[in-house]
């Protein structure tokens, strides 16, 4: 191809579904692979002779600079300079030249269907962080580890799990499968906590509070109900909400820009509602973590398809603007969007590669076990290791326990929590006997409601 054949070349993003139609219109499909943004931005306005090879009906590969690359592929379309063509005018109107007009694509070595060991290990890692955080709250320890980030990891993994296992299910099958996963165990634990709180701690609750909890929507009604019976039960409301959001948003699984905009609007609405009504608990526990769910959906979809493509669309720009700048002007920073993925990467990429293989295998087995039962552990661990532990230690010692005695009791009661979680999970599996599709791993019915 000679340079003279091109007049005012235009770069534009092209979805895979439109590739064939673009080629049919005598445009040239270019796949640019380069790890450096500097080389990418230095892409000449028109190809030089020798840089592009082309055969009729084939793709064109243009590689400026080094041919070494990460698994990043920037896919663009180079449109022949047809000044008077309607298609060229439409492209210029839709994709201004100054945007660089490229689809950022991340490719994976293989696709992931259902669940994987690393996802269960991350859930086990997260539940340990949460337990340490709540134990430290009783012992008045300095929160240096910020174990509350374990909940952020759960929310992100929940979105990823739904994208991996439930994207193709019908609405009825999805709701039946997911609600049977969370509510039977939750109702049993809720009943247990209500009885224990009444008999041991002398606590009583209103009929409205109890009804909202059994419906799983109590956190929508503010801190008074979200954190009343058990500090962990607010998470059930978040799960119910995310299931509904997933059903509404899964039409955009292959359009990350629209999914980001949808998630930003929902997050902004809930954040504004909780802030203006003074619901600090729901704001910090609930609203600030919601964006992680949509990040998880995008990540899970990428793992499922083996590829992630993000185009510079108006939806993506508006969503990021709303979630970052607009939120920042109101004093809201979604720090979990950076810290939680970084913590996950530290475990998956650093710990598992730096420790000896025997240590990795041993810790991995423990974390996978905890991850498979993380939902039950999450819901019941707080009252058991905190309130009931101190209550029974006081009865046994005839006085208030000191710090070491409280720690010893926490270890024992955490082991009791694990045993109860395993028994509850086995009971639920026996009663409902969830069916697993042939291509899906059995872990798809386990974990923290994802």
Short note summarizing the structure:
This protein has 450 residues and is α+β, with helices and mostly antiparallel strands. It has helices spanning 19-24, 37-41, 86-94, 117-139, 149-165, 171-201, 207-215, 223-226, 234-249, 256-276, 280-285, 290-305, 314-329, 336-354, 357-372, 374-397, 403-432; strands at 10-12, 28-32, 60-62, 72-79, 103-107, 307-310. Residues 1-101 and 436-447 have low confidence and may be disordered.
Write a structural description.
The chain has helices at residues 19-24, 37-41, 86-94, 117-139, 149-165, 171-201, 207-215, 223-226, 234-249, 256-276, 280-285, 290-305, 314-329, 336-354, 357-372, 374-397, 403-432; strands at residues 10-12, 28-32, 60-62, 72-79, 103-107, 307-310. The chain has 450 residues and is α+β, with helices and mostly antiparallel strands. It has 2 domains: 7-107, no CATH class; 117-255 and 292-300 and 335-445, no CATH class. Helix 5 packs across helix 14 (336-354), helix 6 (171-201) runs parallel beside helix 16 and helix 10 runs antiparallel to helix 12 (290-305). It is globular. The chain starts with 9 loop residues before the first strand and ends in an 18-residue tail after the last helix.
């Amino acid at each position: 191809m000679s340079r003279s054949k091109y007049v005012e070349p235009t770069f534009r993003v092209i979805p895979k579904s439109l590739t064939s139609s673009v080629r049919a219109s005598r445009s040239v499909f270019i796949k640019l692979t380069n790890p450096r943004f500097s080389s990418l931005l230095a892409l000449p306005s028109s190809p030089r002779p020798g840089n592009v090879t082309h055969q009729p009906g084939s793709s064109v590969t243009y590689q400026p600079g080094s041919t070494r690359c990460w698994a990043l592929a920037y896919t663009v379309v180079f449109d022949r300079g047809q000044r008077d063509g309607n298609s060229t005018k439409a492209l210029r109107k839709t994709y201004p030249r100054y945007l660089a007009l490229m689809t950022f694509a991340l490719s994976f070595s293989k696709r992931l269907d259902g669940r994987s060991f690393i996802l269960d290990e991350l859930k086990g890692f997260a539940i340990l962080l949460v337990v340490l955080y709540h134990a430290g709250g009783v012992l008045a320890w300095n929160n240096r580890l910020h174990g509350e980030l374990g909940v952020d990891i759960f929310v992100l993994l929940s979105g990823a799990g739904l994208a991996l296992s439930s994207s193709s299910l019908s609405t009825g099958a999805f709701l039946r499968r997911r609600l049977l996963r969370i509510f039977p165990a939750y109702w049993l634990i809720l009943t247990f906590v209500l009885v224990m709180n009444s008999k041991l701690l002398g606590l009583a609750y209103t009929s409205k509070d109890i009804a909202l909890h059994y419906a799983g929507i109590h956190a929508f009604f503010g801190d008074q109900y979200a954190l009343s019976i058990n500090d962990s039960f607010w998470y059930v409301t978040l799960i119910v909400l995310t299931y509904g959001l997933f059903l509404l948003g899964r039409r955009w699984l292959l359009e990350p820009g629209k999914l980001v905009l949808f998630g930003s609007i929902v997050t902004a609405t809930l954040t504004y509602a909780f802030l203006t009504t003074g619901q600090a608990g729901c704001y910090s526990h609930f609203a600030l973590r919601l964006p992680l769910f949509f990040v998880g959906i995008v990540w899970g979809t990428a793992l499922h398809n083996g590829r992630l493509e993000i185009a510079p669309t108006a939806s993506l720009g508006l969503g990021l603007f709303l979630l970052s700048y607009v939120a920042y002007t109101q004093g809201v920073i979604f720090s979990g969007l950076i810290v939680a993925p970084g913590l996950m990467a530290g475990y998956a990429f650093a710990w598992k590669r730096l420790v000896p293989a025997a240590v990795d295998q041993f810790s991995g087995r423990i974390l996978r076990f905890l991850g498979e039962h993380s939902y039950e552990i999450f819901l019941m661990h707080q009252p058991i290791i905190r309130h009931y532990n101190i209550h029974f230690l006081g009865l046994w010692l005839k006085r208030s326990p000191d710090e070491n005695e409280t720690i010893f009791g926490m270890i024992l009661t955490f082991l009791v929590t694990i045993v109860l979680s395993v028994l509850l999970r086995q009971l639920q599996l026996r009663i409902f006997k969830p069916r697993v599709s042939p291509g899906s791993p059995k872990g798809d019915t386990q974990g923290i409601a994802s």
